[in-house]
Design brief:
The structure is a single chain. The protein is mostly helical and 135 residues long. It contains 4 helices and no strands. It is elongated. The two termini are 19 Å apart. 31% of the residues are buried.
Length: 135
């Protein structure tokens, strides 16, 4: 594993406690504060669905970001794109999950979610094509 990959995977692992805390908050929301940590009260079913989606995407996309960090080491990617892909993968996980939480309260903040979705697509496509080209 390259030093750059170790750095970025390490940073990704540091995000995991925030995902755990988010899960405890979602548990507090869906259990009406019986379990987990207290979250916002009086959320609509739609807002609760956004909270659940934000938490699920946080975990999955953080794992994807770590996988992409390793894959970048083996992909034929132009050197000027390597760091944008590395940073974009982690930023995508933060923006998509944060975007769901933001949209739960202000629909106008959906640009956060869409920006993260574009980053997910851009980073995965770049690394995927780079891996195919490296054969």
């Amino acid at each position: 594993m390259s030093p750059d990959t170790r750095l970025m995977v390490g940073l990704s692992l540091i995000l995991i406690p925030t995902i755990v805390y988010g899960g405890l908050t979602v548990l507090g929301v869906v259990s009406n504060r019986l379990m987990g940590t207290p979250g916002p009260s009086n959320l609509s079913p739609m807002q609760i669905a956004y909270y659940r989606a934000g938490h699920a995407h946080a975990g999955v996309l953080t794992l994807l970001a770590m996988l992409l960090q390793i894959a970048v080491d083996y992909a034929a990617i132009p050197s000027f794109l390597v760091w944008p892909v590395r940073v974009g993968a982690i930023a995508a996980s933060i923006l998509v999950s944060g975007g769901f939480f933001a949209v739960a309260h202000r629909r106008s903040l959906r640009i956060i979610l869409y920006t993260g979705a574009v980053l997910v697509a851009a980073t995965t496509l770049t690394v995927g094509v780079g891996l195919i080209r490296s054969r």
